[in-house]
Design a protein that fits this description.
The protein is built from 7 helices and 9 strands. By secondary structure, the chain is α/β, with parallel strands linked by helices. It has 2 domains: 8-77, Winged helix-like DNA-binding domain superfamily/Winged helix DNA-binding domain (Arc Repressor Mutant, subunit A, Orthogonal Bundle), CATH 1.10.10; 84-195, Rossmann fold, CATH 3.40.50. The strands form 2 sheets. Strands 5-6-4-3-7-8-9 form a 7-stranded mixed β-sheet. The chain has a two-stranded antiparallel sheet with strand order 1-2. The radius of gyration is 20 Å and the shape is globular.
Length: 209
């Protein structure tokens, strides 16, 4: 089911709500309120209620949110319930960490293909994934993968994006600070850790006048 005119900020918060709901479920909690969920994840209760309102009724008056149902519905909205396989391009320090990161499985993601240009890495297996030559990116067309993760130097990111889009990738998570241009119908999400870190000093106590 496609939902129209949903604010991007709402979509960004949905996985946060899901993470909170999963945590409560693992603690043996069966139902919760927007207030308790808000306290756990650090947002306002009204924001949770507003975000959920885009998708219909989530809670039961006097009971709150049934966590099993909440997890199922948010998974369905985000299309996580079917599971997703992704290709990783760039197996340097960052790429290696991504391959080893177990948190992707919580949301149904699995990196099943990895590519690099380093001849010393090509042909080896890392975290259970065989590292292929970057020249074989076109083979993604035959793998049925639609998600790609780019963890290459900034100067190579656009070329890699072009190659994986040509190979059928429709969703890209990139760790390159460079803006990537893609055709309509392809979604790019950029994670720039340095940019987020650059915000922190603003909030720190300072002796500057």
């Amino acid at each position: 089911m496609r939902y129209q005119k949903i604010p991007d900020e709402t979509v960004r918060r949905l996985p946060v709500y899901l993470r909170g709901a999963l945590h409560l479920s693992r603690c043996g909690v069966e139902s919760t309120s927007s207030e308790k969920l808000a306290d756990l994840i650090g947002v306002e209760p009204w924001q949770i209620r507003k975000d959920f309102s885009y998708f219909g009724d989530f809670d039961t008056p006097g009971v709150g949110y049934d966590l099993s149902s909440l997890v199922s519905r948010v998974n369905n909205i985000l299309r996580l319930d079917a599971g997703h396989k992704a290709a990783l391009v760039g197996v340097g320090n960052l790429g290696s960490a991504l391959l080893a990161y177990p948190g992707f499985r919580t949301y149904g993601f699995e990196i099943v293909a990895a590519f690099d240009i380093d001849r010393r890495k090509i042909g080896r297996r890392q975290a259970g994934v065989s590292i292929e030559d970057m020249a074989a990116l076109g083979a993604l067309n035959t793998c049925g993968l639609h998600l790609g993760i780019i963890a290459v130097p900034e100067t190579a990111s656009q070329d890699i994006a072009d190659a994986i889009v040509k190979a059928g990738i429709k969703g890209i998570l990139t760790f390159s600070p460079r803006r990537i241009a893609v055709p309509r119908g392809v979604k790019v999400i950029t994670i720039d850790i340095a940019i987020d870190l650059a915000r922190l000093p603003y909030y720190l106590p300072s002796n500057r006048r």
